[in-house]
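Attaching the record inline, Q. Sequence:
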Amino acid sequence: MKNNLSNSTRLILLHPYIQKQGSSNRLWLLALVSFLTLAFLATLIYTRESITTTSTVAAVVAAANPRLSASVSRALIHYASNSNNSDHMTYTDMKQISDALRQCSQPCNLLVFGLTPESLLWRALNHNGRTVFIDENRYYAAYIEEKYPEIEAYDVQYATKLSEMEELIAAVKEQARNECRPVQNLLFSECKLGLNDLPNQLYEVEWDVILVDGPRGYWPEAPGRMAAIFTAAVLARSKRGSNPKTHVFVHDFNMKVDRVTSDEFLCRENLVKSTDTMGHFVLDRMDSNAVQFCRNTHSPPSNSS
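Structure, as predicted:
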């Protein structure tokens, strides 16, 4: 009788403990689930508020900094084309570039090879966008930046000569599957026509408009524009952003070297308009495995005037 009582007592004593321990575990589990739920809800609310705030700020900035009106753009082009500088572009050529900038989604990224009498014009027309200039004269680039602090300019050393154009183009064709691919990061390239010594950040920018108006190229020892045109072609085809198209303008299109190099790397099927002095190309990005710049190198210009 004593043993049975003892056993019963132990059962009576242990049973509440076990029940209490189970309740405690369930309470901890319930608390953990509640905490995770509250954390998730807090994160969701914060994320939505953050997105809403960001969108609101972007809308306010866009409203506070609208693009230039058409009348202001026309006025700027008018006065620039009627300046006393004999080296300035024609009104028609300036307007082509202005139109492309006005069609560009803001903020627009404009890359210009060459510091010219129109440099301040391009910076003004690309209102609220980023405009970068590349020039072969380091002293002139430094002078322009000092005189006009709003100008972003960098110097680059060209290792090309106008007299070597045919040889350089042939070298690119031989290396089209390796160093001179149409799609690549030129920062790591050893292609003879690829500019790989620009500031690293410039290779990551999704350029919407590129203007080739430099370097100099009117005598055999001059650098010519082969490297600038090739680099523009690769930057346009290597884009990874939401805008797959890039407007590329080549000034002095009447020069043989500019036309021949443009035919090779920008391609005639991409030529949407041309004048005596300006070629306007629109390039689409390419697949990373592409090994050919042009689909049809013998096709006529699509819309020349």
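The beta strands are 109-113, 130-135, 152-155, 209-212, 245-251, 271-274, 278-284. Confidence is low (pLDDT under 50) at residues 1-20, 49-63, 298-305.

More tomorrow.
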